[in-house]
Amino acid sequence: MINLKELANKNRKFLQNTSENYYFSPGRVNLIGEHIDYHGGNVFPTAINLGTYGIVTKRDDKNFRFYSVNFPDFNPKIVSLDNLSYQEERNWANYASGIIDAFVALGHKIDHGLNILVYGNLPNGAGLSSSASLEVLIGVILRSEFNLQIDMLDIVKISQQVENRYIGVNCGIMDQFAIGMSKIDKAIYLDTNTLDYELVPLKLGKFTLVIANTNKKRSLSDSKYNERRSEGEQGIKILKDHGLSFDNLCELTIKDFEENKKYFSSQVIQNRIEHVIYENHRTISAVEALKNSDFIAFGKLMNQSHESLDVLYEVSCKELNTLVNAFIKYGAIGSRMTGAGFGGCTISLVETSIVDSVIEKVGQEYYEKIGYHADFYPVNTSDGSKKMESGDIE
Ligand code: GLA
């Protein structure tokens, strides 16, 4: 664990004064229910104890200054309250300026700047939602520093809108919701259509969830993500043109899909829709299985989810498949890619007593096949984004 007070002291020149406040925002991992949150489906993520820390001091002027300990070569990014529009050269600080911009547009009184020192221990771009973690962090900082009347659900919704409209990634609400609303030792069973949710105790008996990061550099992921969304839209149009009436694709039953799939002239579009409909039902079954402590059934559903994401939705890749296959070969009872795909991470259910040996064998096989190393993290859950109490700060 990073010593935050020491970090603040080391960066006193940036923070300028000593009355700082500390904040933490987690990352998230999705257990099942992938690529369906933008079709009103059911998802099952949990927040993890890796995330983004913010150390904040007040300023008298109208400037927000951001400095990331993760990118020590870069100068602080300065965002003036007089110019909150997206600017390429602001780089990662656009996630922050986007949130400030949205708060101001909603009429929240933000009348002075802040110094915000950011430190993250989530691997960047690994599919554990480092960007959503930063967005919700900034929302929580603004709420607390300016005493704003805004609840967490609104911060979550604003963060998703910033990602969609300001950053330009057409993501669903799962990441921001999990990051804002999670509770330690629970996973969130979320209906992304109604935003009804249930905090399900993550009681795994003799099993442990293990995240593995492919460490594959992703570049095309955002455009491919938007491409999957537009393929979904094409499928929806075909179904509606043939008389089906629905607001969200995930309202359709498996029977609806099977009876109407004959209308798809493109196999690719049919495959995309098939994934969405079946994945939604798999999530419902998986939550049921977990509540009944039927871990074997949960693991099987994870495997089916991966196969569907690989073959039908085509968002997996050699690196993810290598990890999933190796995990299963060496004893995991379930394994799948998690997040947007095209690289990023897998999540696997492994008997706790063999976790170390499985990680060693999977790590070796991955290195032999791919040529560089994967990283492994057992899942530790976390509360959602919050101001840290003095007792939480080392
Ligand atoms: C990304 C998006 C989420 C979700 C997942 C895939 O993480 O931000 O909204 O669509 O991909 O399940």
Structure report:
- The mean pLDDT is 95.
- The protein folds into two domains: 4-202, Ribosomal Protein S5, domain 2 (2-Layer Sandwich), CATH 3.30.230.10; 207-379, GHMP kinase, C-terminal domain (Alpha-Beta Plaits, 2-Layer Sandwich).
- The chain has helices at 4-10, 12-15, 93-105, 130-145, 152-167, 174-181, 221-241, 254-260, 267-291, 295-311, 318-329, 355-370; strands at residues 21-30, 42-43, 45-58, 63-68, 77-80, 114-120, 186-191, 197-201, 207-213, 334-338, 345-351, 375-378, 386-387.
- The strands form three sheets. It has a six-stranded mixed β-sheet with strand order 5-4-6-3-1-13. Strands 10-11-9-12 form a four-stranded antiparallel β-sheet. Strands 2-7-8 form a three-stranded antiparallel β-sheet, sandwiched between helices.
- The chain has 394 residues and is of the alpha+beta class.
- It is globular and about 65 Å long.
- Strand 4 and strand 5 form a beta hairpin.
Class of secondary structure makeup? alpha+beta
> What is the number of helices?
12
The small molecules bound here are: alpha-D-galactopyranose
Gross geometry? globular
Strand coverage percent: 15-25%
C-alpha-based Rg, rounded: 21 Å
Distance between the termini: 8 Å
Summarize the helix and strand pattern as letters. Answer: HHEEEEEHEHHHEEEHHHHHEEHEE
- For this structure, the CATH topology of the largest domain is Ribosomal Protein S5, domain 2
Sheet having the most strands? 6 strands, mixed
How confident is the prediction overall: mean pLDDT? 95
Please identify, by name, the CATH architecture of the largest domain.
Answer: 2-Layer Sandwich
Number of separate domains: 2
Query: Any idea of the CATH class of the largest domain?
Result: Alpha Beta
Note poorly predicted spans: none
Number of strands: 13
Measured as a percent range, the helix fraction is 40-55%
